[in-house]
Amino acid sequence: MCASRSPTFQTLTAFVVVFAVQSGVRLVAPAAAVGLFALAPPLAVRPWTLPLSVYAHANLPHLVSNAVALLFVGLLVERVTTTVRFHLFFLSVGMAAGVAQVWIGGLFGPPTAVLGASGAVFGLFGYLLAANPVTRAVVGRLQLSRGVQVALVAGLALVVTLTTAAPGVALVAHFAGLALGLVAGRLHVLRTETQGTNNRQPV
Q: Which of 59, 188, 57, 167 is nearest to 119 (CA)?
């Protein structure tokens, strides 16, 4: 797939465009920059930040780290789905992860704003991890009950999330994104109908 048609590269382009707009706003109105792009409570006051915050980033290193991670997992996931499904999955998981960070994080500390694509990227990683043939074969052979599978998803999401722990990192968003991705991978929500009847390479 050429770069212009790749949903991964389209998403990377969105990162760059939004960051360029953010940089321009910071030059003109620094105080307004965070409020215009970051998701923060109350969510109903600035509803546009729900989708926009997924593509916005705090600084250049933040953008680069998420872009590199997206490049690795996105190019693999996009091979088994359509462009529309890829974007819908990325955006919906990113928004859900952001809301989880704002709501759940607010229960244990002062309200904070969140922005960045890490929740969505973790969702893609979770999907890649759960939907690949090796994982399917192992889980199928073990014949685990539904309850045990749920516990494993939660436990794996927690362990992976804690490995990214650092000051200022949105751990709740990482956990939520990864958990949603793992569940989505088990359900194969990104798989198209034609994949069940042909030999297209699976994740």
A: 57
pTM of the entire predicted model: 0.84
Q: What's the number of domains the chain is made of? A: 1
56, burial (CB in 10 Å: exposed 0-12, middle 13-18, buried 19+): buried
Query: Does residue 94 contact residue 117 with C-beta atoms inside 8 Å?
Result: yes
Q: Are 145 and 62 in contact (CB under 8 A)?
A: no
Calpha distance 41→98 (Å, rounded)? 11
Is residue 78 within 8 Å of 6, Cβ to Cβ?
Answer: yes
Average pLDDT per block of 10 residues along the chain, 203 residues long: 84 97 91 86 92 95 95 94 97 97 81 90 92 66 63 67 65 91 91 57 45
Domain containing 32: what range?
A: 3-196
Classify residue 99: in a domain, yes or no: yes
